[in-house]
Amino acid sequence: MKILTFDVEEWFHVLDHGSTKNEKQWQNFDYRLDANIDSVLQILDKYNQKATFFCLGWLTKNHKHIVKRLDTLGYEIGTHSNLHQLVYEQNITEFRNDLDTSIKSLEDITGKKVRAYRAPGFSIKEENRWVFEELLSHGIEVDCSVFPAKRAHGGFRTFGAAEPVKIATNIGTIKEFPMSIDEVLMQKVVYAGGGYFRFFPYSMIRYFMDRSQYAMTYFHPHDFDAGRPIIGDLSPLKKFKASVGLKKALSKLETLISEYDFIDLDEAMKRVDWDFVKTIDLPERRKKQRLSNQIMLKDSYQNERRKHI
Ligand SMILES: [Zn+2]
Question: Residue 11 Cα, ligand 1 centroid: separation in angstroms?
């Protein structure tokens, strides 16, 4: 099963960087998403491939027509949050508000229920797995935020195999399609998205794709924008990651899409026999979380008392 997904955001939605962190700063940059999404849609149309698009709720302010266009063309729309913040930097209230806004604003445009979610930067880690329960309580049925390896942002190293699973929470079960990862010489290798796809020669991408039973891709429209500006004050490593392989990326995508049959998330959910997949249980973790919440409550109570002394 090879699943095609795109995270729909602007080129300046760079995570964890001072000059691109919040919505106000984004006004300093030009929009390029219209042209970027055109290039992607032309290829999908040419090879008649389906895909799921995880859109930022923020798009519904200035790029409403793009969400509308994707929906009208029959593509499945999930949420990629509202304001593209790292989830592990948010508390529960901030996360809830952001998710709620994104779902409502996307549903307002499409008139369809948003069922799927992907966190910015795959930022669900072991420590903030409370997120799964929050997703369920907001009507999200399937998550694609787990990156089961080490990663600069997020990364859930203890998650286990990169395969579809169910995650049990206190209020029900959510379906999880993690990022697919291969292993070469005991090293985990990501190949099917973002800078990794741009970095590897296509022959290697093909090698990994051919031997994978399960491939979850994650592309961004700006991954294929050869003329994309690079934020000036990025570190040399971040500049490299942002620019590597940009010139050839679009033709590489076309080759990939011409060579393999992809499905969207909706179809993938139908093809998995959910009665037979592994369920990952959280109760033990949640006990720990409740305990740490109690400690935090105790601490804040003491701080309150100190203020009154
Ligand atoms: Zn993103």
Answer: 10
| pTM given for the model | 0.89
Confidence of residue 282 (pLDDT cuts 50, 70, 90): low
Rounded to the nearest angstrom, the distance between the alpha carbon of 294 and the centre of ligand 1 is 33
Lookup result for tokens 């032309």: 42
Distance 301 CA to ligand 1 centre (A): 37
**30 CA to centre of ligand 1 in angstroms:** 17
| pLDDT at 81 exceeding the cut of 80 | yes
Could you give the strand order of the β-sheet that contains 5-8, starting from the edge strand earlier in sequence? Answer: 5-8, 52-55, 76-79, 116-117, 142-143, 172-176, 165-169, 279-281
**What's the pLDDT at 257?**
97
More confident residue, 284 or 23: 23
Give 195 Cα–ligand 1 centroid separation in angstroms: 12
CA 276/CA 284 separation, integer angstroms: 23
DSSP-derived letter for residue 169 is E
* Distance (Å) from CA 79 to ligand 1 centroid: 10
Q: Are 67 and 77 in contact (CB under 8 A)?
A: yes
Classify 5 as helix, strand or coil.
strand
Q: How far is the CA of 144 from the centre of ligand 1 (A)?
A: 12
CA–CA dist 143, 229 (Å, integer)? 31
pLDDT digit string, tens, across residues 22-72: 888 898 899 999 999 999 999 999 999 999 999 999 999 989 999 999 999
Distance 304 CA to ligand 1 centre (A): 38
Taking the centre of ligand 1 as the mean of its atom positions, its distance from the CA of residue 36, in whole angstroms, is 15
The length of the chain is: 309
CB count within 10 Å of CB 88 equals 16
Name the class of domain 2-277.
Answer: alpha beta
Residue 265 near residue 53 (C-beta atoms within 8 A): no
Tell me: pLDDT of 149 over 90.
Answer: no
